[in-house]
Amino acid sequence: MGPHKVRLMMKAERDRAKNRFRRQKNKNYLAKPGIHDCIIVLDHLKPSYNIGKIFRSAEAFGAHEVHLVGIDFFDPAPGMGAFKWVPTVFHNTFFSCYTRLMNKGYVPFILEPGKGDSITQTAMPLKSAFIFGHEEFGISFEPDLFPGIRRMTIPQFGKSQSLNVSVAASILLYEYSRQHERIDNNQRSS
After folding, report:
1. Would you give the distance in Å from CA 122 to the centre of its chain?
2. How many CA atoms lie within 13 A of 105 on its CB side?
3. Which of 19, 98, 116, 143 counts the most CB atoms within 10 A of its CB?
4. Domains in the chain and their CATH numbers?
5. What pLDDT shows up at residue 113?
6. How far apart are CA 103 and CA 112, in angstroms?
7. How far apart are CA 135 and CA 162, in angstroms?
8. Cβ-defined contacts of 111-116 (< 8 Å, 24+)
9. Which 3 state secondary structure label does DSSP give 87?
10. What are the pLDDT digits (tens) for 88-111?
11. What's the CA gap between 37 and 24, in Å, rounded?
12. Is the pLDDT reported for residue 147 higher than 70?
């Protein structure tokens, strides 16, 4: 198979992903916040697999919302339909996202390997916003220019000191929900 055919196949898959996104985005308008007050912020992530997987974890752990910065579409297929269930806010810039979060009383956190306190040793406020950057380039802003952003790290014991962004988001959501364990009304009645 030549490079031209590969490009055509990639374009066709991208077009299918955009169609899936449009269909699920229309259903997203009816999404209700999860049982926790935490927010996930995805800063310029690639539109392929990780965003959908993070939506899946956000729905599973009852996140309030997901904010997308600089992301105009993504493939929702890896999320197994979760994009329909988690309210989504789109931002062109991180500054608009940061302003909105701060005005609503959220404490923003970034993860940096080896910097900040361990997520297991950090008391996360109810209104926590967890910011995840691009898979290769990280966050799109200089954190020191945004007062109030706190640094945390996920303890790691291997040599690579690196986790996939969707895995890191899942670990962080688990720790947040462990610290703020709530029982959904549907679970109480059973």
Report:
1. 19
2. 4
3. 98
4. 27-116+133-164 (3.40.1280.10)
5. 80
6. 25
7. 11
8. 111/151, 111/152, 111/153, 111/154, 111/168, 111/172, 112/151, 112/152, 112/153, 113/153, 113/154, 113/156, 113/161, 113/162, 114/153, 114/161, 115/151, 115/153, 116/150, 116/151, 116/152, 116/153
9. coil
10. 999 999 999 999 999 999 999 999
11. 23
12. yes
Amino acid in position 156:
Q
Residue 65 vs residues 8, 58, 119, 158: alpha-carbon distances, Å? 35, 8, 20, 32
Query: In the numeric block, which tokens belong to residue 23?
Result: 């269909």
Which tokens belong to 113? Answer: 């390997």
Locus of tokens 């339909």? 81
Quick: pLDDT tens for 3-12.
766 777 777 8
pTM of the model: 0.89
